[in-house]
Design brief:
Helices cover about 20% and strands about 35% of the residues. By secondary structure, it is α+β, with helices and mostly antiparallel strands. Helix 1 crosses helix 3. The protein is extended.
């Protein structure tokens, strides 16, 4: 389910030449129903729409009052095109709920909203009709709203499967990398690569770097030019 909520000073719906619905100050809700939607989505959307704080209070403070707080009107319009998916430049609506299922679902949405608010303040258009919707957006203020994935029925395919996967922690990634390094065999050291070493001795004031040819000696800690190397010396290939 996807809704576009607009704060309006007035709005109306016309079918043909007949105006079938109109409101004054309040909100206009354009609602697109998808094949995944359930009763939990209806409950969530109604609660959010009616409690969305997009109006000012009596002192003029913005974003502090909802449509119920101000006792304003609500105009709901069914709009399946909100479930559009583009294929190139062509809109595709396979995610929209088929009209024979969407109409009772939409009517249930309206009924639940009227129960949660005042029935006389909730107006709607005409489901499935070709409508002309006039909206005088106040602000303009337009807000998009969708239910969270967790409110969906588990038998439905999630909107985005990646959102259901718990992100891996940084520590778990580090541990995984360490395990990979342990499992990877170290390549054998070639004779050519073992021929020349750099010996670095750190002094209090500077690092003296010199190239030395020296006999190699294998040890559990690596390959060294001396046995054992002085603590102030470090060898590099």
């Amino acid at each position: 389910m996807r809704a576009v909520i607009q704060r309006v000073t007035k709005a109306g719906v016309t079918v043909g030449e007949e105006q079938i619905s109109s409101i004054g100050r309040g909100i206009c809700v354009l609602l697109g129903i998808s094949v995944e939607d359930t009763q939990k989505d209806i409950d969530y959307m109604i609660r959010k729409i009616l409690n969305l704080r997009i109006f000012e209070d009596d002192s003029g403070k913005h974003w502090s009052k909802s449509v119920m707080d101000k006792q304003y009107e609500v105009l709901c319009v069914s709009q399946f095109t909100l479930q559009c998916v583009l294929k190139g430049n062509k809109p595709d609506y396979h995610l929209a709920m088929p009209s024979e299922q969407a109409e009772p679902f939409y009517n249930d949405f309206l009924q639940q909203m009227r129960k949660a608010y005042k029935p006389e303040l909730v107006k709607d258009g005409k489901f499935g009709a070709y409508m002309q919707v006039t909206i005088q957006n106040d602000g303009p203020v337009t807000i998009e709203l969708e239910p969270p994935v967790s409110s969906m029925d588990p038998k439905h395919v999630p909107r985005n499967t990646n959102r259901n996967k718990a992100p891996r922690s940084l520590q778990s990634l580090k541990n995984s990398n360490k395990e990979k390094k342990k499992q990877e065999p170290r390549p054998p050291l070639s004779l050519a690569a073992r021929g020349v070493y750099l010996a670095v001795r750190m002094t209090p004031t500077q690092a003296v770097v010199q190239r030395e040819m020296c006999p190699l000696k294998e040890s559990p800690k690596g390959v060294w030019c001396q046995d054992p190397p002085p603590p102030t010396w470090k060898t590099f290939r």
